[in-house]
Amino acid sequence: MSKIVGVDVRMVHIEPEVLRTDAVQTFVRQETVLVTVSTDDGLTGVGYSYTIGTGGSSVVALLRDHLAEVVVGQDARNVEALWTRMLYATRATAFGVLTSLALAAVDTALWDLRCLRAGEPLWRLAGGAHERLPVYDTEGGWLHLSGAELVENVTAAQRKGLRGAKLKVGKPSGAEDAARLAAVREAVGPGFELMVDANQSLTGAEAIRRARLFEPYDLAWFEEPLPAEDVDGHLRLARSTTIPVAVGESMYSAGHFAAYLSAGAAGIVQADVARVGGITPWLKIAHAAEAFNVKVAPHFLMELHASLACAVPAGMYVEHIPQLGAITRSELRIEDGCVVPPEAPGLGIEWDEDAIEDLRVA
User: Fold this and answer.
1) Which among 130, 166, 256, 299 is annotated as catalytic?
2) I want to staple 7 with a disulfide (CB 3.0 to 4.6 A). Which of 67, 68, 196, 254 is the partner?
3) Where is the Mandelate racemase/muconate lactonizing enzyme C-terminal domain (predicted)?
4) Residue from 166, 168, 305, 320 carrying the catalytic annotation
5) Dihedral sign (CA 185, 334, 299, 290)
6) Active site residue 295
7) What is the torsion angle, in degrees rounded to the nearest 10, for the CA atoms of residue 237, residue 240, residue 241 and residue 242?
């Protein structure tokens, strides 16, 4: 047995490295919740989740007031049993984003322990499907940027060898979105992948209209065009366009993904390990996508998703958008436009404890 003897919960505020804006919000700050799980055999695992400006303190309260006591005294090796135990303890608030974020912080710590105990990196222990995957950039495509700035940023990413770039869309007129996209496509040429992301800002009719404006630019996907609860709207859009429809960052359970996949409303799955409740459910979602012949390009969390996307056969892309630089010593290894997952046992993240203490707010 590897009995859990302690669960420590902390939160730090991390300022974005650049101004991040999309069609519905500005990225104010990253409230990063860190959970450290200790066991009686001397191991310590660290997991985390995040919010983008609000709700972090609520996740901390849920962990401290409810979930910590659920896992203390239990065998840390039984990851599936512990995830189910935590879910049942929070049934009144599941499935929802705050509960999923809390579950994820503990679950990723348990997977860190699992990998440390086995002496294996996460990408291999979780499946070992790919030794590397291509990377696309998001950090240079924010909505507030001018067309000239978009061209400058995306061509810079291309020169660095990255395989693609994502642009935010959702300007007041579709013509403006299309003009920005056209300028970037002309600058990078036909061999560089471009994606667009509307952050759930459009109606079904407007999404169909804009997809037709975007089609000449050969997009890899059209991300979050509609509110995540609108499965039928995404299905109508998918049937109306040649552009793959990408969904997932605002979905919080495996069942929600199952509804999209079974309906044929998702061309690309973008599950976020923090928002679905951890690595345990993330792997189920990724394998379900594989069963439907749908690829997985995870949302955000590149330091963790680099390993998870490489773990599963459906892994397609890793999103380059730095998240943890202020509180870590490790960096992702990117070679020839591809991420190489960490080989160190555990999650592959080297935390900077001094920086964490300096930025700690709870």
Assistant:
1) 299
2) 68
3) 147-244
4) 168
5) positive
6) no
7) 120
Share of the chain residues as helix, strand and coil, in percent rounded to the nearest 5: 40, 20, 40
Residue among 312, 300, 242, 244 at smallest CA distance from 270: 300
Respond yes or no: is residue 299 known to be catalytic: yes
Q: What are phi and psi of 52, to 5 degrees?
A: -115, 45
Task: Give the integer Cα–Cα distance in Å for 180 and 183.
Answer: 5
Please report, as a single letter, which amino acid is at residue 81.
Answer: A
How far is C-alpha 15 from the chain's CA centre? Answer: 18
How much is the CA Rg of the chain, to the nearest whole Å?
Answer: 20
User: What is the identity of the amino acid at 246?
Assistant: A
Residues of the chain with pLDDT under 70: 362
pTM value surpassing 0.85: yes
What is the distance between the alpha carbons of residues 188 and 48, in angstroms, rounded to a whole number? 36
Report the amino acid identity of residue 55: G
